[in-house]
Amino acid sequence: MRIDMHIHTRFSPCSKIRVRQIPRKIQEACIDGVCITDHNTTASGSLLKGISHVSGLSIIVGLEYATAQGDFLIFGPDEYIPEGMDAKTLLKWVKKEGGVAIPAHPFRRSRPADPRILPFFDIIEVLNGRNQTYENDLCMQWIETNGNNKKCIGGSDAHTLDEIGRIVTVFDKDIYTSDDLIRELREGDYTVQQRY
């Protein structure tokens, strides 16, 4: 399955994407699904009931959590996440709750995940569609040098419909629920693909 792991809807103040536009755009982009990762909220989930499995599409709600050490994609414990945690405390909390935390856009000039915390995480976002090429390259170089046994994901970080599907993570197994995604992120095989 080809899943864009990082998109924002109008529940993020920076995005123009409406939740109801997503199923059609997934089909137009010839991908299988998206992960909605709005800033510090999972409010989009309330609008998804009944459309997540339309035509076999995968739409999973996570969030992008802001810390002083950068932003993190969170999948799993989305009912309630305490505010104000630092990166290490967030990682411990998410693991305890059975979820996955992934540093978003490391090495980006604005709002990067602090490279000093990367060794504590098992999965890193190595390709981000809103990064400059050199910023993604710096992340890839870090992975090559320091990322022993680290898994890598990518996502468009879409704020407009046209951006959805530009960068995807390709999973070997089907993913339709948050539990499926967490299982595959931890145990499965996947690669990152820049499509255009």
Mean pLDDT across the residues is 93
Strand-pairing-aware structural class:
alpha/beta
Number of helices, where a helix is a run of at least 4 consecutive DSSP H or I residues: 5
- Let me know the largest β-sheet: 5 strands, mixed
Number of strands: 10
- Rg result: 15 Å
Ends apart, CA distance between termini = 17 Å
Order of helices and strands: EHEHEEEHEEHEEHE
Describe the SSE topology.
Elements lengths: L1 E6 L14 H7 L4 E4 L8 H4 L9 E4 L1 E5 L2 E6 L11 H10 L3 E4 L19 E6 L4 H14 L4 E5 L11 E5 L6 H10 L2 E5 L2
Parallel strand pairs: 1-2, 2-3, 7-8
Antiparallel strand pairs: 1-9, 4-5, 5-6, 9-10
Could you walk me through the main structural features you see in this protein, from its secondary elements to its overall organization?
Helices cover 23% and strands 26% of the residues. By secondary structure, the chain is of the alpha/beta class. The strands form three sheets. A five-stranded mixed sheet has the order 3-2-1-9-10, with helices on both faces. Helix 1 (22-28) links the parallel strand 1 (2-7) and strand 2. The longest helix is centred in the C-terminal third of the chain and has 14 residues, at 133-146. The model has no long low-confidence stretch (mean pLDDT 93).
